[in-house]
Specification:
Number of strands of chain B: 20
Helix content of chain A: 10-25%
Oligomer: heterodimer
Radius of gyration of chain B: 26 Å
Number of helices of chain B: 15
Strand order of the largest sheet of chain A: 2-3-5-4
Low-confidence stretches of chain B: 460-464
Largest interface: A-B, 49 and 50 residues
Radius of gyration of chain A: 15 Å
Shape of chain A: elongated
Structural class of chain A: alpha+beta
Largest sheet of chain B: 10 strands, mixed
Structural class of chain B: alpha+beta
Strand content of chain B: 25-35%
Number of strands of chain A: 6
Mean pLDDT of chain B: 95
Distance between the termini of chain B: 43 Å
Order of helices and strands of chain A: EHEEHHEEHE
Mean pLDDT of chain A: 91
Low-confidence stretches of chain A: 1-8
Distance between the termini of chain A: 29 Å
Strand content of chain A: 25-35%
């Protein structure tokens, strides 16, 4: 079967965020925002992700094709070994034009991010 | 001082294992508190006055909770009755409670706290500059929007619920409430630190979701003390860990550790989460910053009626030019309805397998071998939506595009008939903060009267 993922030359030291994170999810935070949670099991992987500098508001804006100012929150919380990103919805939950009423399937592009 | 709270499940009506609940009652909790609310299912529930759970599911949960509360002589507090917490939802829940009371022969002291906000209150707020949108992508609130909105509710804080507890109520049924507020109210009523009460409420309002494995459909216990609190599930299969409980503060919130609520901001940055053994986690360091008191307003309005079709496409020649074909289909349909003002209806095509879930945000544009197609027409009447959608379907089915070989038909319908006449479509038209001078004035309390065979007043019954 043909792989749907684009084949890239991959540095062996790189890791997919989708493999490193224990929880990688999206959900509404109210009807006008979607929030992405990246949570880790191990402090090492959490630190590595933060120190890689890959996760920035600019990265998210580019990955999701949204204006930078729509990425309203990108905060790490050491105690929870987690990173939270919140962005504004184009269309509010459950009205005409929405595609994901609960916002629960908007996280997948994050899985492909390569962490050095 | 210690206060133990049992949270049976994440949403009243979601159910919970009987064994977990019995174990929870054996811990001798001081109250059973359950949240029933959510805006997650979209604006339709609030706009149309529909509940999140079925009446049967609600009755089953309530019956067990009421028997438990009666047995232990402890209060039962329900937040955001019926999901959206408007009058209609609250009455619906009240009716089930009354039915159960008659059935089990228990006529407790019940206080209802209403959360419906009169338009005049909001208009006054607008005039005085006391209304602020929750985020920049919320539409402006105008008197016209308000007039078209099907009733507005506000999320109450802990204060109105504390007043209800002070009357000695055995059941407190709240309209729309900030999800942690019913828990915080019990905590504050018993003299605990509001920061700990709100934080523990934030964890318990989702049931056992903060455990591993997590679920909203199982019980949790929380034990408040002077300098912290401990949470755990009575179900031994579910363990709390410091990371699982800390991470739960992320859930459905914009910010990981700053949680704004009515009249305050909960700051969890300096919290410590410590393993207390046996799947229990002890939390200390929750802080609260008091802010000018605001309540969150929620309202929904009907914007249109919808008809939609689901179909599959397997022909690679068509998949290669979907956008072009759909532009042609829409043009042809609009031409055939030339007498109808074009703004009276909208047509939308969604392609599962390409970008159905994420739309313009989708980074992966790989062309698949088959596409799940959904198209919908929304219009200002159901009749028009039905008519236009039927034309889109027949036009699409037979549309002759450049290079087409499958001249017998373009779409594989899984159902006959193919068109689903869906009904009204809503949107959140109000999602604003209202500054208020009192945490309780907008949330009137009403004691249920058991006189006249426990029938509510006639005017209320007519609204059901």
């Amino acid at each position: 079967m043909r792989s749907r993922r684009l084949k890239k030359d991959r540095n062996v030291d790189m890791a997919r965020l989708g493999d490193m994170a224990k929880v990688l999810r999206s959900k509404n935070s109210g009807p006008f925002e979607i929030t992405l949670d990246i949570l880790f099991d191990h402090p090492g992987q959490y630190r590595r992700t933060i120190e890689s500098g890959v996760l920035t508001r600019e990265t998210i804006a580019a990955l999701y094709h949204i204006p930078l100012e729509h990425v309203t929150v990108l905060v790490a919380f050491d105690t929870a070994l987690g990173i939270k990103i919140t962005y504004l919805r184009d269309v509010s939950s459950g009205t005409f034009g929405d595609r994901d009423v609960y916002g629960a399937q908007q996280h997948a592009p994050l899985m492909e991010l390569e962490i050095s | 001082m210690q206060t133990c709270i049992c949270a049976p499940c994440g949403i009243l009506g979601y159910g919970f294992p009987e064994q977990s609940f019995q174990l929870a009652l054996e811990a001798q909790p001081d109250a059973i508190v359950v949240d029933a609310g959510s805006t997650d299912a979209g604006p339709h529930k609030l706009g149309a006055g529909i509940a999140i759970v079925s009446r049967m599911a609600l009755r089953q949960d309530l019956n067990r909770l009421m028997l438990g509360a009666r047995k232990l002589h402890i209060p039962l507090i329900i937040g955001s009755a019926g999901g959206s917490g408007a009058r209609k939802h609250t009455l619906w829940c009240m009716e089930v409670i009354e039915d159960i009371c008659h059935e089990i022969g228990w006529f407790p002291h019940i206080e209802i706290i209403w959360a419906d906000i009169d338009d005049r209150e909001i208009l006054a707020g607008l005039n005085e500059g006391r209304v602020e949108k929750m985020s920049p992508n919320v539409s402006d609130l105008t008197p016209e929007t308000l007039a078209r909105t099907n009733g507005v509710v506000a999320q109450m804080g802990a204060e109105p619920i504390i007043e209800a507890l002070q009357t000695g109520a055995e059941i407190v049924l709240c309209g729309r409430a900030y999800d942690p507020a019913p828990f915080a109210a019990l905590a504050m009523y018993r003299g605990h630190d509001p920061a700990l009460g709100y934080h523990m409420g934030k964890i318990l309002e989702c049931g056992a979701l903060c455990c591993e494995p997590g679920t909203t459909k199982d019980c949790m216990l929380g034990l408040l003390e002077d300098d912290g609190f401990t949470v755990w599930s009575p179900n031994p299969a579910r363990k709390c860990t410091p990371v699982s409980v800390a991470a739960h503060t992320f859930y459905e919130k914009s910010h990981p550790y700053e949680l704004p609520g009515p009249g305050m901001m909960l700051d969890l940055h300096d919290c410590s989460f410590v393993d207390a053994g046996d799947g229990k986690v002890r939390v200390t360091g929750s802080q609260i910053r008091y802010m000018p008191y605001t309540v969150k307003l929620e309202g929904a309005r009907r914007i249109a009626f919808r008809t939609f079709v689901i179909a599959g496409i397997r022909d690679p020649l068509l998949i290669a030019k979907l956008d072009e074909v759909e532009r042609g289909v829409e043009q042809s349909v609009r031409l055939s309805y030339g007498d109808i003002p074009p703004e009276r209806y909208h047509i939308r095509f969604v392609h599962y397998g390409i970008d159905g879930v994420m739309g313009p945000l989708e980074p992966d544009r790989t062309v698949p071998h088959e596409v799940g197609l959904m198209f919908e027409v929304i219009a200002d009447t159901q009749e028009l939506a039905d008519a236009v959608c039927a034309s889109v379907r027949s036009t699409y089915l037979h549309y002759g595009y450049e290079g087409r070989k499958s001249t017998a038909g373009n779409l594989a319908f899984p159902f006959a008939p193919s068109d689903v006449s869906f009904g009204p479509v809503y949107e959140f038209s109000v999602y604003h903060l209202l500054s208020v001078d009192s945490p309780t004035r907008l949330f009137p309390m009403e004691r249920l009267s058991w006189e006249k065979d426990a029938q509510p007043p006639a005017e209320e019954r007519q609204e059901r």
